[in-house]
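can u do me a favor
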């Protein structure tokens, strides 16, 4: 019998599994979660709603009701289709599976969301990362044009705002990329709730543009629900690699319920954006810390004359968990990323820092 070393693909053996640290009693500012819970009456109403769920039955395979709620909540333009995923991570995987061939390329700016590269590897595709400009993490258009021309990517992922840098790329440059691309361009708008601009309304202007959203960062990370919107010619094909019933009954029911109360989530989003501005100003005032402007619910900052690993470890020792980006090296050397939490959590973080 073959050993795992003989049987598992070498590129999979070379990976390390996506590591999620234990957070225990720590102040958890590492994963872009919304820190707020719901008012008690809303929780009661939700639990009441869940009583009607038929847990013995398979879910509605097309999730009709949820699909309508999502179209409305995210203002998907008429004439565009949507596809739901078990988190937008699953949608990235479905897109990749639908186009995967050994010599095909997935391209994304770098640094960006790590799953683009991981999923390219899972599906046996090539990944090309194009470095962002080091000073402000804007797109290096010369490098992008060259890489697109050379690699003819099947799919380009643009996180908008970008994770982990927090900035929006220039709209005109994104349009240039869509126009140049020989394949699909997926604009991944995981942080749209916190940002000033979206490509949702641009859908339909380009045949190769898809827009992806998730409910995770707006306060429903536990549900695992993402959304891909775009022309039906693409989505009908990608839908074929979707596993049946990928959106479970509890998620369907809970998402419909919470989107009915979207004003609660929107209010929380506003609080997070206000806190982000306060946090940015306060970070700017700390010596040796250089924060980057953000249109998301986190802030990336550089440690200039302190060692980022030491800052990270000492925060941890004092009970605050953020994300150490420094290990990634390159333009992220010396960088840490903090998620915006509740005011008191942010204050704890700032005072420890
Ligand atoms: C968090 C994140 C996602 C993943 O969202 P899920 O819906 O929770 O899978 C996708 N893209 C970006 C850029 C993210 O930061």
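np, heres the sequence
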């Amino acid at each position: 019998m073959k050993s795992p070393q003989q049987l598992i693909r070498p590129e999979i053996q070379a990976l390390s599994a996506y590591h999620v640290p234990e957070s225990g009693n720590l102040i958890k500012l590492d994963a872009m979660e919304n820190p707020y819970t719901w008012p008690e009456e809303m929780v009661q109403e939700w639990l009441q709603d869940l009583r009607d769920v038929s847990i013995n039955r398979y879910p509605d395979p097309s999730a009709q009701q949820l699909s309508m709620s999502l179209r409305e909540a995210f203002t998907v333009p008429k004439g565009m289709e949507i596809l739901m995923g078990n988190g937008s991570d699953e949608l990235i995987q479905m897109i990749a599976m639908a186009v995967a061939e050994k010599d095909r390329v997935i391209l994304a700016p770098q640094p960006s969301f790590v799953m683009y590269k991981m999923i390219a590897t899972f599906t046996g595709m090539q990944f090309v990362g194009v470095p962002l400009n080091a000073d402000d993490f804007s797109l290096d258009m010369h490098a992008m044009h060259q890489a697109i021309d050379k690699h003819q990517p099947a799919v380009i992922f643009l996180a908008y705002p970008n994770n982990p840098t927090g900035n929006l790329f220039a709209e005109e440059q994104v349009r240039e990329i869509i126009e140049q691309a020989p394949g699909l361009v997926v604009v991944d708008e995981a942080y749209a709730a916190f940002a000033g601009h979206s490509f949702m309304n641009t859908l339909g202007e380009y045949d190769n543009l898809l827009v992806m959203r998730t409910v995770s960062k707006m306060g429903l990370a536990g549900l695992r629900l993402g959304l891909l919107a775009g022309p039906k010619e693409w989505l009908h094909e990608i839908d074929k690699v979707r596993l049946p019933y990928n959106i479970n009954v509890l998620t369907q029911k809970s998402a419909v319920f919470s989107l009915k109360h979207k004003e609660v989530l929107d209010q929380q989003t506003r609080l997070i954006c206000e806190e982000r501005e306060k946090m940015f100003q306060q970070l700017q005032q700390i010596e040796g810390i250089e924060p980057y402007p953000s249109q998301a619910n986190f802030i990336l900052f550089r440690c200039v004359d302190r060692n980022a690993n030491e800052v990270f470890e000492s925060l941890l020792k004092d009970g605050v968990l953020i994300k150490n980006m420094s290990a990634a090296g390159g333009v992220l050397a010396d960088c840490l990323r903090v998620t915006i939490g509740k005011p008191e959590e942010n204050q704890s973080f700032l005072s420890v820092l």
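The longest strand covers residues 105-110. hope that helps!!
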